[in-house]
Specification:
Rossmann fold; membrane; mainly alpha; 3% strand; 5-stranded mixed beta sheet; transmembrane helix; 26 helices; globular; transmembrane
Length: 601
Amino acid sequence: MTPAPAPQPARGIAGWPYGRLILLAWAVVAVILIAGRWQSILTVSMIDPDDHMRLVQVRDWLAGQGWFDVSQHRLYPPHGGDMHWSRFVDMPIAGVILLLRPLLGGAQAEIAALIAVPLGILLLAMNFVARAGRRLLGPEGGILAALLVATSPYLLAQFAPLRIDHHSWQIAMAGLALLALLDDDPRRSGIVAGIAAAFWTHISIEGLPYLALIGALLALRYLLDRREGARLVAYLIAAAAASIAFFAATKLPAAWGAVRCDSMSAPYLLPLAIAAATVAAGSRLPAMEGAVQRLALLGVAGAVGAAALALSGPACLGGPFEALDPLVHRFWYQNVREGLPLWDQPSYLAVGSLWPSLVGMIGAWIGWRSAETPEAARRWTTFAVMFGGAFLLSVLVYRGQGVAHLYATIGSAALLTVLLRRLANLRFAAARVPLTVLAIALPSPIPAGSAMARIELDDAERTMLQPAFDGKECLSEAGLSQIAARPAATLFAPIDVGPSMLMYTQHSVIAGGYHRNNDAMREVIRSFTGSARDAEAIVRASGATYVAYCRRLPEIQLYLAASPKGFMADLEGGRAPAWLRPVPVTNSPDLRVWQVAPPIS
């Protein structure tokens, strides 16, 4: 009997294994990212306050803070800062540090982790999008989609070295969910999509609309074809089971019943589990042969789930930010640009953000129109629903651009495949070469955004968009070194600089830009926008030893504009009150520090 031939690796282009092609595409994008961030890598200049805070969290965990305790004890002492973050995001960062610390030392191991982890998540995302693109476009189209990640500045920013917050994980899970939904095996498809959605929502509640979107898509497919019930049931059960498992693995039993609207907790887990059980049981009934019966079943599951949410967590019906103090909402939340809808962004930024999605939508339409089989049409329809949902969410919340732009790479690859094939048939190189370059650049938002900026802004406004000071010098290890040399104390500082001060010093701070830090943020805002006399009472009550801030940061400008005669205006005008004693700082011209004098008895 002749033995069966050994399985061969999936071939991609020119006989290369597809996995090797994906690695090559990833290496190209990784080199672009490292080159673009090289100076920041050398100076460890992180992109966002959340990146600073993430590293502080990892350091504290490695120093002995418990797995279940993700609070930040140096935030708002002695109360501590309650955080909603997941330890799962900390794990790869901590793992790389532990692995390399014996070889490189602590500081260099940290830098290695700050480079390796975001690039590793980039590899995951590019692998998922390449394989999803292959199912829609073939090998060449999948690799092209992966390479088009490099055309989106928003995507590049989320996977850049030193960018260690959770946004990259969300984008990667979006890619895995899409890949799973395009799988022909219904149970495997549902299970993988369910686990991806569960992990997505566990690391950020921002994944909840996508979990619902996938459920609605699979419910519609089941409504139209009973055979799709296996995919829907597998998805719901996997999403519920994985969500419960992730929750139990990161929360102490005493906290299992707590109502937390900003993270996966009982008010979300209970409806998900009930809906999954209802559909799983009902779909097995013989009466489900008819579409009307299936619609009734889905309606019952949805109604029971909604009732469970309303009863177990009525506060969550208004969203996770309903409890914010009005002052915090005005000065902090409304000025977090990534959390605002697209229509509240400058026009040039909105156009630049929309462009990749619009190009991708044209390609998705071309792909759907050119589908040669019913199965291919179903795949393109699935992709269109996911892409359309991501696009809508990116309009409602700006940080949703990451998922929308990832999906847009597949649509753009479909469009470019058609354009490049037609351009290849042009006889004259003088026309073919420049048109090919223009076609490849088509998905990039930079030309459209730049053109809109030229139309919308005058020279003075364009200059304002590129300020000479961005806080990096002041909020760096070198800039904070003199205050870091002082004995551990508590700093009363603006909200946005808190995480940097936690990372580069051993001091505590009163506030950081985290919504569970609501009370502390309110006190900081009240002090800097109120009178110096009122600020004294707030600062002394906080137990702070120092008042410190970096000049010219946007937050400072907000306080000055809101209260031209307030405490911050006094500090900026050189009129520090008598209860503050200046602390000389010579290595950072924009850092201002005062010591709180003892109260006069």
